[in-house]
Amino acid sequence: MNLNNFFNPKSVVVIGASSDKNKVGFAVMSNLSGCRTSRQIYPVSISESEILGLKTYKSVSDVGLPIDLAIIAVRADIVPQILTECGKRGIKNVIIISAGFKEIGEAGKILENSVKEIANRFKIALLGPNCLGTIDSHADFNTSFGAKKPIRGNIAFLSQSGALGTSVLDMAIKEDVGFSKFISLGNEAQLSEIEFLEYLAVDDNTKAILIYLEKLSDGKRFMELVSEITKTKPVVVLKAGRSERGMEAVMSHTGSLAPADSVFSAALKQSGAIAVESIREFFNMAKLFQLGIMKPLKNLVILTNGGGPSVVTADLIDLSRSLSLVELSDSTKEALRKVLPSMAAVGNPVDIIGDALSSRYEDALKILVDEKGVDAIILMLTPQMMTKVEETAKLIVQYRSKKPIIPVFIGGPTIQAGLEYLKRNTLVNFNFPKDAVEALDNLALCHSREGGNPGKSSYTKSVSDKSSRVSVSKMMDFVEMTKILNEYNISLTGILVKEKTKLISAISKFGSGPYAMKVISNNIVHKTDAGAVRLNIKSIEEANTAWNSMEKRILKENPDARIEGFFIQRMGVGREVIIGMKRDATFGPTILFGLGGILAEAIKDTSLRIAPISKDEALQMMREIKGVSILNGMRGEKPVDFNALADIIANLSRLATEHPEIKEIDLNPVMVTNTEAVVVDARVMI
To answer: How far apart are CA 410 and CA 382, in angstroms?
Structure first.
C-alpha cells in the first residue's frame, strides 16, 4: 500500500472547508495554505464561494481535476455520504478528521463500521476518523488543525491521541526538537499503526520513531515490525491503559481494549523497543535523538562547574540500570591537573569549580574528548556571576563531533542566551540531570534487550484481558492433558490410580516413600484449596486413609464432582519453579517463568515472554528473576539444571503456538535439581 499521498500529494480537496476561524475546516485550510510547497488545494463548501483566496466547490464531484488526497471535516452523520462521493470520484486516499464514531458508543460504532465498509468497497486508504491529520516537515505539508507545525527533523511521531500529539508538537516547537512526520491515527477504522510503521521503516527522512499507543491492531505483526525497525532505528513507545482505571479511560477515549500491561512490556522488550511511562520520559527521548544520539552511550563523564548537581547526577548514574561513570586514566587526571585550579576535582565528576569561564571548560574538553573509554560527556552548567553561558554553548557545538556531549544547563533567565545558541545550531538542553540520565539509561537498556523485570505484578491478574471475561473455559481431561504434554516432551511423573484396590500395586512400584496423592477431577481447578492433595504419605495405611478422607471431603462439598482417580507420586526433591502459559487477546500465547510453590504467590518474582521463544530466550528469562541466586546455588549448593528447564519452557512455547484452542497452562511446581527438572503438577484450560 502506497501511503505517499498522505504526506506529499500534488492535489488536496478539503470537504468542510470554512472561513470561520473557530471551525476545524478553517484550521485545516489555513495550515495547508501556509505551506510553501506548491500543490493544488480545492476547498469544498456549500455556503461559501471563496476561502483564503481560493475558489470553492459545492461538492467533490464538481472538482474536475485529479485529486490525490481528500480531507473530510464535516458532521459525523454525513461522512458516509461524503466518503461515497470520494469513492465514486476515484479518490484513493482519505483523512477523516470528524469525530463522533466508536468513541461515543454503540451508535458511533455502527456509523464507523459503515465508513469502513465504504472505504473497502472503493479500495480507499482511510486514515481516521476522529484524528488530527498528518504533517510532513520535509515536504512542508500539514493537514492537521494544530496551532503550529514542528521544525524539520528526523523523528517520526505516531499517536493514537490527537490531544497528546498537539501537546508534544508544541513542546517540540518550544525546545526546537525536529520531526520528520506526524501521524494522528484516530480510531483506525482501516489504516492503523501497522501500515504506518511499515511506511516509516523505509522512510529515509526518519531515523527514530515515537509512538503513543492505547491499543494494538495486530500484536504479532507489531512485534515483527518493531523487531526489524529497531535494528536500524530506535522506537520509543508510551503505552496508556496500564491500570484498571487507565483501561477504562482507553475504552471511553477510543472504544478499544488495551493489552495487559505486563504482556505489553514483555512484547516491547522482545522487540527491542524503548518503553517509557510518562510524557516527560517520552519527550526526553526525542531530545536525545535531536542531539543525534541513536545508539547506547553507557560509559559517561560528568564535566561541571557545580559540585552539588554533579553529585546528584553521579548518584543517578550509579543507581541506573545500565550506565556507569568512567574511571579516568592516570594520564588524563594528570593532564587535567595541569590546566585546572588546584581546588578542582579531576576524578569523575570533573568539577572545574564555580568561577569557571568558558576557557576552563574548553581546557577540560580538549582532554576528555580524547579519553578512549568515554562514550559521552554530560556537560553541566550552573549560573554564577562570572559564568559565560553562551560561550560554553559554543564549545558544545565545536567539540560534539569529537565526542557526544549532552548539555545540562540548569537555571532560568541567566542561561537563556546559551539555550538560544544551542537551538540555533539544532541542539537541545536537558533542564534537569534526571532527564538526561533517564533517557540515556532507557536507550542503553533497551538496546541490550536485557534487564528489568516484566513480571513484577501477579501473572494471573496482570495477564488477564477484559475481553476474556465473556469466554468460557474448562479444564482439560487429565488423560488428554498428559497425552498432549508428552507429545512435547513435557512429562508428569506418577501413576493415575482409578480404583482403590490397585493402590498397593501402584505404590509398590515407587519403592520407599514419602509419597504425594492428588485427586484428579475436572471439577477441581485448585487442588490445594479444595483439600485434594496429601503430602508426606509414608505407608500403605496412610495412603488408604488419605484416599478415604479426600474422597469424602470432595463429595461432601461438591456432590456432583466426578473423581477420575488419584495421581500417586514419589515426593520430589529440589527447588520449586513455575512455568506457565496464558493466551493474551492481543499478542497470543505468553510464557511465564518464576519461583514456584507458595513463593509464586508470595513474592511474585516472574519473567514473561511472547511465544514463540527459543531455548536461548528461555535461559535469559531465568536469569531475569530476582531470585535467580536461589537457582544458581547458595551456601555450597549446586546450581540447578538450567538447560532442562529451558527445554521445558521452549517446548511449552511450541505447544502453545501450535494449539490455539488451549487458553492456559500451569506447570506448578516443577522440581529442579542439578541433574534434572521434573513436572510435578499441571493444569491445562481450554
So the answer is: 5
CA distance readout (Å), 488 to 476, 588, 649 = 16, 19, 11
| Residue 636, CA distances (Å) to 629, 630, 632, 633, 639 in order | 12, 11, 10, 7, 9
Residue type, 509: K
CA 92 to chain centroid, in Å, comes to 32
User: 485-506 in b/e burial notation, b at 16+ Cβ within 10 A?
Assistant: beebebebebbbbeeeeebeeb
Angle between helix 358-368 and helix 330-339 axes, rounded to 10 deg:
160
- The whole-model pTM stands at 0.84
Residue written as grid cell 506457565: 580
pLDDT digits (tens, 9 = 90+) for 375-425: 999 999 999 989 999 999 999 999 999 999 999 999 999 999 999 999 999
Q: What is the mean pLDDT of residues 303-317?
A: 96
518: pLDDT strictly greater than 70: yes
The sign one gets for the Cα dihedral 497, 500, 504, 505 is negative
Q: How far apart are CA 146 and CA 141, in angstroms?
A: 13
Distance in angstroms (rounded) separating the CA atoms of residues 228 and 218: 16
Distance CA 165, CA 679 (A): 50
Query: Which three cell numbers mark 248?
Result: 477504562
Sheet containing 274-276: which strands, arranged edge to edge?
141-142, 134-136, 179-184, 152-159, 208-213, 235-239, 274-276
Cell of 311: 553529585
Length of the chain: 686
In the three-class reduction of DSSP (H, G, I as helix; E, B as strand; rest coil), residue 236 is classed as strand
Q: CB–CB of 29/18 below 8 Å?
A: yes
The residue with cell 461524503 is: 82
Three-state SS string over 502-532 comes to HHHHHHHCCCCCCEEEEEECCCCCCCCCCCC
Q: Which of 590, 581, 630, 624 is nearest to 606 (CA)?
A: 624
39 CB neighbour count, 10 Å cutoff: 16
Helix (H) or strand (E) holding 619: helix 615-624
- The β-bridge partners of 96 are 72
